[in-house]
Amino acid sequence: MSILAISFSREVFQRNVITEPEELNIGDLKFTGGRSYVFEVYVREIANLGNDSPLCIWSCIDAFCFPILVEKIEEVDNKDPGHGSPSQLITGYSQADIDVSGGTSDGFGLILPNSLNKSQFLEFRVVLRSDLVIDVEQGLPVDGNHVDGLLPSGNGFPGSSFESWFWMGEREN
């Protein structure tokens, strides 16, 4: 099981992020969350058409979303020298109680499907519709622009979309 965890600098409301709460059991682990139309996660696949013309396909993943409380974040070096800033890795979190009518959290976890072939290099793109994620303190949408690939994100105006990318596995040269 792989979980993509995304954090915010302040608490946000859970409403709009998770629709129709449900439980998901994976072995001994129980998650309470649901579908999210605010987050989109894509995986890049290369299809060989047989004529030496590979086709790049971005497929949207059906990821289960649940609220979290972030406990620890560490900065990690990027292996991609073209990336603007160090990545931040959430190394500790707990599940937050779910309440889509008024509950809050400072992050969300997205459970990626086990059907992904994790033995190969996978490239992901994540999109967050920031207009729908409301900052508890300010009552406004979070500032989601990922300007020049730098963290923290934002351009000083509420809303927009946060888009970023990450990889799993070793890239072949």
Task: Explain how this protein is built.
With 173 residues, the chain is an all-beta fold. It has a single domain, classed as Immunoglobulin-like, CATH 2.60.40. Helices cover 0% and strands 53% of the residues. The protein has strands at 2-13, 19-26, 29-35, 39-48, 54-61, 64-76, 87-95, 104-112, 122-129, 161-168. The strands form three sheets. It has a four-stranded antiparallel sheet with strand order 1-8-6-7, with no helix packed on it. A four-stranded antiparallel sheet has the order 5-4-9-10, with no helix packed on it. The protein is globular. It starts with a strand and ends in a 5-residue tail after the last strand. The model has no long low-confidence stretch (mean pLDDT 83).
The count of DSSP E runs of length 2 or more, i.e. the number of strands, is: 10
CATH class: Mainly Beta
Q: Rough shape?
A: globular
Distance linking N and C termini:
27 Å
> Given the structure, what is the number of helices?
0
Order of helices and strands: EEEEEEEEEE
Which sheet architecture does the biggest sheet show?
4 strands, antiparallel
